[in-house]
Amino acid sequence: MLDQPQEMAGAQDTIYLCNFRVSVDGEWLCLKQLEDVEFVDNNYQQPLSPPSPVEPLALLAAKDPVLIERSNLVNISKLVVKELIETSQKYGRMLDSDHLPLQHFFIVLEHVLRHGLKPKKGLLGPKKELWDILQLVEKFTPEAQDMTTSVRDLPTVKTHMGRARAWLRLALMQKKLADYLKVLIDRKEDVLCEYFEPDALMMSDEAFIIIGLLLGLNVIDCNLCVKEEDLDCQQGVIDFSLYLRSSHHYYQSADSVLDPDNMTTVLDQKNYIEELNRHLNATVTNLEAKVESLETTNALMKEDLEISKNNYLLLSDENSELKRQLGLSGRASDKADEGGGGDASDGSSAKKDGDKKSGEVSSEVEELRKQLEMEKAKRMEVEKELKLQVNMKTEMEVAMKLLEKDIHEKQNTIISLRKQLEEIKLINLEMFKKLQECEEDLTQKGELVSRLQKKTTQIGKILNNMEKYNHLLRDVPARQNSTGSDGTAARPTSWGSVNYPKDNIFDKKSPNYYKKVDPLNNIDFSKITKKSPKTPEDVETGGPPPSKVDKKDENCGGEPQE
Q1: pTM to 2 decimals?
Q2: Where, if anywhere, are coiled coils annotated (predicted)?
Q3: Which end of the chain has less Cβ packing within 10 Å, N or C?
């Protein structure tokens, strides 16, 4: 009886993930027990929590274990990625392989990528491996070729799963993991359908959620040594207690606040690594250029070596031919000695002939040796000259390139100067036209000024005459008063002349009433004061031209006209 409560307590403490549904509640991972198995403590009250947006989907898919697995993987991926980003920003350092959230991330990512992977067909059929899928990335993105080849050449990794883990770690360090996986997901109908089941996570729309989570990891800097890790062994398990929320857990908001100093150090490290990467790329390009130059020199040296080998073979053939001729001459002399049963004089003469021939052959051999040495010396000189010519050629090519650059630059400057010259010509033409217009305006204004001066002189004369006439009009009433009382006395109308009462200019009935005659100059002011019609020139200049005024002056002189 005592053992039964202990067994119940053990059953309550043990968590079977196959009987739970994973959901996200705020920042925590909630495991909710399914209906078939229930171990509920009567004294425990579950804390209230807001409804999760994932719960309706989980309730609809409660009968489908594949959908439950997919939702569990997505939710745990969210929590692991969030924890990884928060810890990396909190500690502000480069993450290595000993970082616990990073280990959890790789374990969850491995489960995500292997979800719904097809088994092998039959006993002898090939097994579908994750490494086979990841190798397809280099066909679509050439940037992944170097990484894939380096993973293939790793000496410490032997299995396909180990290579897949190394590939994922290198992709995360390069911050291209999300991009590479997106390439596969975009071609899931053509490529992934051969490796995954139709209800797999990589074939569903939830794969894009995983890609979005992986994009957030681009802010993390990792330094993972793939050679030192044992990637062929089975990876560890995840401690879900780090992501499960307890009813008595109250986190402080101050801990979640990021330290700005740590952020600055992380950004400084990131900038330093990027600068180092740029320097390394520059050194790689320089080394590649040097390798290309060395390859070209090596090819030239190989060609020279082949030429020297051919010359050596020719000389060796000539030497063997000479040796053969020397042997034939020696044999002929020996035969002559053996067949010398006749006269001794004939034998001695044949021997002498053989000695002469052998001497000649030896001299020819020495001459050929001397010629060979001469040829070798000449060959060395020719090689030196060839090297000098090659160097001269390279220098000439460099000089030609520099001259071409200078010529192009000078041509560009000449073209720009021509354009400037054309612009200056256009400006000069415009200035010349403006100058001509100004000169025409000046001549017109000078003529106008001369006309106005003439008019002012004429107006001055007219004003003087008017003043004199006003004085005369003032003098006439005084003289009238000085004459008789009947008012019939004579009135002077002009200088030295008298008007009689019958011809009184001040009488309205007199015919000369309207003729205002200046007694001094005999000017008829009635014609001058009459408004003459204005011409367009009068309107523009403010008065008649000088020619019209002159005509008026001519009419004004002499006797008044009726």
Answers
A1: 0.39
A2: 277-325
A3: N
